[in-house]
Write a structure and sequence with these properties.
Strand order of the largest sheet: 1-2-4-3-5-6-7-8
Largest sheet: 8 strands, mixed
Structural class: alpha/beta
Number of strands: 8
Order of helices and strands: HEEEHEHEHEHHHEHEH
Shape: globular
Length: 265
């Protein structure tokens, strides 16, 4: 019996060690293939504070309209953000489809702090083009919700939209891997629920109740943390909510009610 227990413990410890070492690729499964850039978007480059030159996509706003900074999910790239905003662009909104280190051929290795640096570089790129923080709408999908919340906590955007977000990566990992000490193992934590309490920007939370990757109770927890936020739950929709037209229509409606657009020019 002692030998069996020791063997089980050794296997468990080996698995824990493997998951600890491999958590980067697991959390950030950047697509292996790079498709063509999206039509109508300029491929631009901005530099991070630690010296990485990142390529992303940009389309300027119509005069007087805000610019959306879109942070995509962990299994996509910036071209997916173009698809997720194709109902917003015709209305006049600009879009900076932000990209991360290690994604779409960009240098560097993704991490929580690294993605925050990348987000700050994206916002600095817009500032250089006279797009101020109060002319920004920050949108984050899935793991991009972690970057979006952090950026909204550091700036004062016109609005914040979180699509299929998690309350925290530590909490989500604990739900998925109950047999592991995830609180001790995780290097990247993305504690959205703590940060959202202090964000004053108008906030919209969108989630599908059939999302098996990030259950919609995470959106409920975020709404509880910030009672000023508006919550929309989409029946029967999974983790691909960001690409549903109904989600874009909800964003358009929310922004139309809360964002002043100067169309006098």
């Amino acid at each position: 019996m002692a030998i069996v227990l020791a063997s089980i413990l050794a296997i468990y410890l080996a698995l824990v060690g493997f998951l600890y070492a491999a958590q980067g690729p697991i959390i950030y499964p950047a697509p292996r293939t790079i498709g063509p850039a999206a039509g109508g978007f300029e491929e631009i480059v901005y530099r991070t504070s630690d010296g990485l030159d990142l390529r992303a996509g940009y389309r300027a706003a119509k005069s007087g309209y805000p610019t959306i900074v879109y942070f995509h999910g962990n299994g996509a790239d910036w071209v997916s953000s173009v698809v997720a905003t194709d109902r917003l662009v015709p209305e006049g909104y600009g879009v900076l489809a932000a990209e991360y280190r290690g994604y779409r051929g960009n240098p560097g290795t993704p991490s929580e702090e690294g993605l925050y640096r990348d987000g700050r570089a994206a916002i600095a790129f817009l500032a250089e083009r006279d797009v101020s923080a109060n002319d920004l709408v920050i949108i984050g999908n899935s793991i991009g919700s972690g970057v979006a919340v952090q950026m909204a906590s550091e700036t004062e955007p016109a609005a914040l939209v979180l699509i299929s977000p998690f309350a925290s990566l530590t909490g989500l990992a604990a739900e998925k891997l109950r047999w592991l000490p995830t609180g001790l193992l995780l290097r990247d934590r993305y504690e959205n629920v703590q940060k959202l309490r202090a964000i004053n920007a108008p906030t919209l939370l969108l989630h599908g109740d059939a999302d098996s990757l990030i259950p919609h109770r995470h959106a409920l927890m975020l709404a509880e943390a910030n009672p000023r936020a508006e919550l929309r739950i989409f029946p029967g929709v999974g983790h691909d909510l960001a690409w549903h037209e109904t989600a874009e229509e909800a964003v358009l409606e929310f922004l139309a009610q809360r964002i002043e657009k100067d169309e006098s020019e």
